Amino acid sequence: MSNALTLKNSLEPTTLQEAMKFSDILASSTMVPRDFQGKPGNVLVAIQWGREVGLGPLQALQNIAVINGRPSIWGDAAIALVRGHPDCLSVQEGVEGEGDARQGWCEVTRRGEAPQRRTFSVADAKRAGLWGKSGPWTQYPDRMLQLRARGFAIRDVFPDALRGVMTREEAEDMPAEPRHVENLAAAPVAPAPEPVDAPLLLIGPDTKEYAFKVLPTWLAAAKRAISQIDPDALGAWRDANSAHIVAVSKRFPDVPVVETIIAAIDHRHEYAETQTQEPAQ
Q: Which domain holds residue 62?
């Protein structure tokens, strides 16, 4: 009888002890990505994240990365998970247009739902400070436009397949340092209106630490902030807070966050009057 070892199943750990030993072995190998070499703890976490979204251990090490403190997945692995979902009927994407109107687009169709299309244009990239950025945005701009549109589309239509994990390409473009914003929701009474040339008010505390935990209070703070801004400054205020608003909207896809903000801007005078009658909650 041969002494050769025959592996009938993949070497996937089934207990914590097995996972820890498995992670130690992988971390000591030079065949795993450099970020995981000598770091068994990172290996273990990556394997667990991979399990959450349906990737095997070695697939996870190749496709899961922590960028700016958040787990992310390479764009090609993300679309593979979506295409493998039983309700995915099609994913189509490309790049079209010229100049600032040039855009990447992605259209995703889920069984029982209408197709949904997302785009990301050169103008969008410029507003986000990405266009001309050293690295892939300079070397492969069309590819980056397409990947950004893809990330929006597949995460909006198949959040259950990706478990809320963003694509690595998006994560790499996010600021590394958290931005400080004033906690307007903590104020018992709305402050006096700011002059037009004063620093623009942000709508609430840091999204990761606050808005994602207490959305109703955050929305109330946003409305109070809008009621304080001079009408001439509303456009600039909206632009300054667009990334902040979109981040919260993506975290709560079932809540019309963007629509609520737009409605508050359209009816700022009505809301301002209610604030003079009732103390802020």
A: 16-67
- Report how far residue 123's alpha carbon sits from residue 131's, in angstroms, rounded to the nearest whole number: 8
C-alpha to C-alpha distance for 26 and 31, rounded to whole angstroms:
8
Model confidence pLDDT, tens digit, residues 246-256 = 777 777 777 78
| Chain-centroid distance, C-alpha 152 | 8
pLDDT digits (tens, 9 = 90+) for 90-137: 999 999 999 999 999 999 999 999 999 999 999 999 988 889 888 888
Residue 67: its H or E element: strand 64-67
pTM of the predicted model over 0.70 = no
- Same domain membership, residue 225 and residue 188: yes
Query: Can you tell me the distance from the alpha carbon of 110 to that of 88, in angstroms, rounded to the nearest whole number?
Result: 5
Instruction: Count Cβ atoms below 10 Å from residue 156 Cβ, excluding itself.
Output: 14
Q: Are residues 47 and 96 in the same domain?
A: no
Q: Quick one: tokens of 201?
A: 């008010």
Decide if 140 contacts 148 (C-beta within 8 A): no
Identify the bridge partners of residue 107 per DSSP, sorted by sequence position.
Answer: 92, 117
**Cα separation, 251 vs 255, whole angstroms:** 9
CA dist 194 and 198 (Å) reads 6
CA distances from 165 to 62, 72, 98, 221, 256 (A): 15, 5, 31, 27, 21
- Residue 281: C-alpha distances to residues 66, 220, 262 (Å): 37, 8, 21
Collapsing DSSP states into helix, strand and coil, what is residue 106? Answer: strand
Between helix 268-277 and helix 215-228 the angle, nearest 10°, is 100
Say whether both 132 and 196 belong to one domain: no
**Distances, alpha carbon 183 to alpha carbons 5, 21, 173, 254, in Å:** 61, 45, 25, 24
Radius of gyration of the chain (CA): 23
